[in-house]
Amino acid sequence: MRHAPTSAAGPVSTPDLDLDLDPGSDTRPATRSEPQAEPGSDAGPAALAPAPEVTGFYEARTGSVQYVVADPATGQCAVIDPVLDYDEKSGATATIEADRILAFIAEKGYALEWILDTHPHADHFSAADYLRRRTGAPTAIGEKVVEVQKLWKEFYNWPDFPADGSQWDKLFAEGETFRLGSIPARVLFSPGHTLASISYVIGDAAFVHDTLFMPDSGTARADFPGGDAHALWRSIQAILALPDATRVFTGHDYCQGGRAPAWESTVAEQKARNSHMARYRTEAAFVAARQARDRTLPMPKLILHALQVNTNAGRLPAPEANGRRYLKIPLDLLQAPWD
Fold first, then answer.
1. Domain assignment of residue 137, yes or no
2. What is the mean pLDDT of residues 319-334?
3. So what's the pLDDT on residue 338?
4. pTM for this prediction
């Protein structure tokens, strides 16, 4: 397991996990380690796949991991799941996280080729639109985001909202391929946590968002609107069918047991030690356990704030006549903690 150094920070909530912990935090990037094959694993295809340089940026407030993925041969890079800073108590927004990613890209001399979302996040705002405006790089997400937009368009009562995915420059289809510089990449449709989730397999690295967490932390919840535990099981099976040496990069870490933040494992490690997948060996057992646990979890505190931004590719609401922006919070929509 690869960890990042920690520094003191406040607690982060853990709505996606079976745990309630106070993690440490890390505001510094951690670069990748070379892929290591597990003893007896099938390392062949992944060991031969090009290895992008992967740098993770841990955002302590929400436990999110943002990534810069670069082709060392060409210097072209992608940013995956960038975070726009938002403080729900004050309503303040900032671009601290996005700006440190831009500073890192400039320091390394990379050229930003893609801004990639894995899904519309429920626990933080996306900085995709900010990065697009700053750099001109195209944004992309999976084509099923349209279904999420249609769902939340009704929830927010947005009759004029274009639920067609046009907010992104590119909508990826299941199995679609592209390149990051000289490195081949492909899209895995991996719903369950949301109905639009995708994973990016770039060379020997798989960015699996909120399907698998670190092996000691299990899997993500599947009870959001449009989520499905059966679909999550099938998505995880597709990820675990990748070569054992494939590096797995998760979208969140809540610092199990108070350890330092960590976000890189391998398929072999996940198969052998994931606390959910190693215990629940059949779809029926996994779904029963996942659904039972999900019924005990509160909704993420930012879900109603974040989805109206993230279904719009990270665009904040337009300023009103007084020049201020406002969020719209539907009442009595989601399950209450006392239900």
1. yes
2. 96
3. 76
4. 0.87
